[in-house]
């Protein structure tokens, strides 16, 4: 066997191994990525679902036209969020999530005022913090990766940033 | 008997040329092991990030769908419980149980997914159970 043949063989064996390594990785890491995708997708959408559910109940209770107007805006903001991980979808989610939280706070405040003199005192005490707390407790905290947990400004990188 | 078999184990004839061929074959095996291992490791490293991201993007919509459904059940029960809970003990209890059963670790438990992390069956059993309960409450209070 001459030198050229030998080098050719080395290259051939390297390529064979490389392709095998890629295939091996494909399955293992693809499945690992799927696990994270399920988790982060779930975590991102629980709060949206909760808001939708609360809108459903409020709508059925007919709280009046001004509440209904806010409900329509909230529903619209939720429906605008695409359920995939494309860059533009993530940007829409982030923009709408801020608006939704603000709108929802206002909605519950308005509802609380409306019920002050009525018999449903629990509605007066129903706050956005209760909704948010439930979402966090069901979906877990998103922080899966922390740059520096002791940093004063809380420089934390949450799991969403990783993807 | 094939040549490769003879290369490794040696043929019945023990002449000099067969001995040389055996020696060369062993060297080639070593060469193959060394270079294919190097290639294998490079292949593993190179494609890691790409494959993780591809898997993530594939299952993300399903994660969203499950999260939305769970959120819808909990949001409905949470508000109904605040509104009608004081007079409806079953509703209060169901809301409390739902918070435990619909937690992320039970929804995404491996028992509900196959080895490829695809949902077993068309419907998630825990979500399906709570969607049915929710329908009863919607019938009662909506």
UniProtKB/TrEMBL annotation, chain A:
<dbReference type="InterPro" id="IPR019191">
    <property type="entry name" value="Essential_protein_Yae1_N"/>
</dbReference>
<feature type="domain" description="Essential protein Yae1 N-terminal">
    <location>
        <begin position="17"/>
        <end position="55"/>
    </location>
</feature>
<protein>
    <submittedName>
        <fullName>LAFE_0G02608g1_1</fullName>
    </submittedName>
</protein>
<dbReference type="InterPro" id="IPR052436">
    <property type="entry name" value="LTO1_adapter"/>
</dbReference>
<dbReference type="Pfam" id="PF09811">
    <property type="entry name" value="Yae1_N"/>
</dbReference>
<comment type="similarity">
    <text>Belongs to the LTO1 family.</text>
</comment>
From TrEMBL, chain B:
<feature type="domain" description="Essential protein Yae1 N-terminal">
    <location>
        <begin position="39"/>
        <end position="77"/>
    </location>
</feature>
<dbReference type="InterPro" id="IPR019191">
    <property type="entry name" value="Essential_protein_Yae1_N"/>
</dbReference>
<keyword id="KW-0539">Nucleus</keyword>
<dbReference type="InterPro" id="IPR038881">
    <property type="entry name" value="Yae1-like"/>
</dbReference>
<comment type="similarity">
    <text>Belongs to the YAE1 family.</text>
</comment>
<dbReference type="GO" id="GO:0005634">
    <property type="term" value="C:nucleus"/>
</dbReference>
<feature type="region of interest" description="Disordered">
    <location>
        <begin position="1"/>
        <end position="20"/>
    </location>
</feature>
<dbReference type="GO" id="GO:0005737">
    <property type="term" value="C:cytoplasm"/>
</dbReference>
<keyword id="KW-0963">Cytoplasm</keyword>
<protein>
    <recommendedName>
        <fullName>Protein YAE1</fullName>
    </recommendedName>
</protein>
<dbReference type="Pfam" id="PF09811">
    <property type="entry name" value="Yae1_N"/>
</dbReference>
């Amino acid at each position: 066997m001459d030198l050229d043949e030998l080098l050719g063989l080395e290259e051939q064996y390297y390529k064979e191994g490389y392709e095998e390594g890629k295939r091996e990785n494909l399955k293992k890491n693809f499945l690992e990525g799927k696990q994270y995708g399920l988790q982060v997708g779930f975590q991102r959408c629980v709060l949206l679902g909760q808001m939708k559910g609360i809108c459903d109940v409020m709508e059925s209770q007919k709280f009046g036209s001004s509440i209904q107007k806010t409900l329509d805006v909230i529903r619209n903001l939720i429906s605008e969020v695409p359920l995939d991980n494309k860059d533009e979808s993530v940007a829409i989610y982030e923009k709408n999530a801020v608006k939704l939280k603000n709108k929802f706070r206002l909605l519950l405040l308005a509802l609380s005022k409306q019920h002050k003199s009525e018999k449903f005192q629990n509605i007066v005490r129903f706050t956005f913090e209760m909704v948010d707390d439930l979402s966090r407790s069901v979906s877990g905290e998103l922080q899966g990766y922390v740059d520096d947990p002791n940093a004063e400004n809380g420089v934390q990188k949450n799991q969403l940033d990783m993807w | 008997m094939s040549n490769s078999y003879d290369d490794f184990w040696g043929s019945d004839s023990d002449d000099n040329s067969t001995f040389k061929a055996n020696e060369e074959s062993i060297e080639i095996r070593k060469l193959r092991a060394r270079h294919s291992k190097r290639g294998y490791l490079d292949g593993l490293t190179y494609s890691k990030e790409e494959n993780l991201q591809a898997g993530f993007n594939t299952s993300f919509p399903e994660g969203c769908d499950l999260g939305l459904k769970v959120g819808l059940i909990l949001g409905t029960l949470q508000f109904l419980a605040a509104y009608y809970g004081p007079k409806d003990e079953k509703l209060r209890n169901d809301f409390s149980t739902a918070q435990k059963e619909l937690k992320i670790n039970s929804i995404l438990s491996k028992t509900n997914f196959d080895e490829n992390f695809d949902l077993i069956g068309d419907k998630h059993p825990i979500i399906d159970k709570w969607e049915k309960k929710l329908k009863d409450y919607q019938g009662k209070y909506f």
